[in-house]
Amino acid sequence: MTIVTELDLPEFDYSAPDLTGEVYHRRLAEAAGRGWLAQGPLSYVVLDRESGEFFLRSRAAAFPGRQIAELFGAVTGRLWEQIDANILNQSGERHRRLRALVGPAFTPRAADRWRPAMRGFLQELWDAKATSCEFVGSVARPYPALTVAAVLGAPPQDAPRLHEWSDWVQRQFDVRALATELPRIERAVAEVYDYVEALLAERRTAPGDDLVSALLAAEEQGDRLSHAECVNLVLNVLAGGVDTTQAQLSHALRLFAGHPGQWALLADDPGLAARAVQEVLRYEPITPFTARICVEDVEHRGVVFPAGTIVAICAERGNRGIEAGEEFDITAERDPRILTFGAGAHYCLGANLARAELEEALAFLAPRMPDLAPDGEVGFGGVEGIYGLQSLPLRWSEPHGRP
User: Fold this and answer.
1) Phi and psi for 227 in degrees, rounded to 5?
2) What are phi and psi of 220, to 5 degrees?
3) What local confidence, expressed as pLDDT, does residue 241 receive?
4) pLDDT tens-place string over residues 135-149
5) How far apart, in whole angstroms, are the C-alpha atoms of residue 195 and residue 219?
6) Three-state SS for 45?
């Protein structure tokens, strides 16, 4: 057996400031061309699907949220409290119990019940007279915030605040942000804790048909959910369900603007929306690197990863490392397994809700935005945490008739 520290590995710097757009894809492809493993600044980078699934599913590997926080000195206050309580950082029986309590709210059937509301939000955001927009600010940012507000039972006018908090709280997974913007992240966490407490108090006196009311019912049963667990589950949903969908929807429209034939196919047949979403998720995952820490010595492919070793599973290479994987094609027959939502015990709880939001958005927009094309330079974000877009100027033609 060879210890991983003894390997001569190619280097891949996932914190490089110019690592966006096609530069990012090209460098990853070059690294993967030299093998399934690379050396990153704080971790090893796993570059194929087989090994990615192995580490994501391994019980000997856990999410290293606490360890990363400690590296950057975030070991006190509300941010540490949130990291320590985050369902991502739980394991064993407690993790199973928490997922069992919140899971029913995120089944495919549960997600489907919010589709009429999603369509209503899209209609509210749509300007039928326009033939151009900055898409991130106009649609991608407000749409998932409105949806998550509805799921939680929060007032729709709170959606802008929910988006801002989600954006900042999610930066706990971004090593560059932890190094440079820690006080702002900590302030956002404190603000969202206060908001969730107020929302719980309101729903306790006036319960509704929403996730918060359901969690409060479980809390009142005493032995199922503590108050602190209830607060942190709501915070997890709020933080994890807005910025991620915004980023994925923004990339979806960017991809289709660059592939007009694919967009025309979807416009002609909105029933392709589910396949289109699957291809967007595969081709441009907005969680490019998912970290795991080995909690004991792990052996894989003849290599020993000692306890304490951190690996970053690259969903981008895992998803693209298939036949014709570099082609964006919503009609292609592909293996449905992708790494965008993770795998194993910590598979993303909100995956079904996110898919429903994306499907409704693409089915709504494609017939209304014929001849979709870029209308200026794309503002890319970084790939260290959630890989989103800061701006996406688009233009299109007036549709022939009303969709």
Assistant:
1) -65, -45
2) -70, -15
3) 87
4) 999 999 999 999 999
5) 18
6) strand
The contacts found for 388-392 with CB under 8 angstroms, 24 or more apart, are 388/243, 388/246, 388/247, 388/250, 388/251, 388/286, 389/136, 389/140, 389/247, 389/250, 389/251, 389/254, 390/136, 391/134, 391/136, 391/137, 392/134, 392/135, 392/136, 392/140, 392/250, 392/253, 392/254
For residues 282 and 327, the answer to whether their CB atoms sit within 8 Å is: no
Mean pLDDT of the chain: 92
Q: What is the pLDDT of residue 81?
A: 86
Domains present along the chain, CATH in parentheses: 2-395 (1.10.630.10)
| H or E, element range at 248 | helix 243-257
Provide φ and ψ at 135, rounded to 5°: -65, -35
Tokens 């460098």 belong to 27
Q: Which tokens hold the place of 240?
A: 């994890």
Q: Quick one: pLDDT at residue 308? A: 95
Length of the chain: 403
- DSSP strand E in 242-337: where? 289-294, 298-300, 303-305, 310-314
- At 210, the amino acid letter reads D
Residue 7 has pLDDT above 90, yes or no: yes
Q: Which residues contact 154 (CB under 8 A, 6 or more apart)?
A: 148, 162, 199, 212
H or E element at residue 390 = strand 389-391
Q: Is the separation of the CB atoms in 387 and 286 below 8 Å?
A: yes
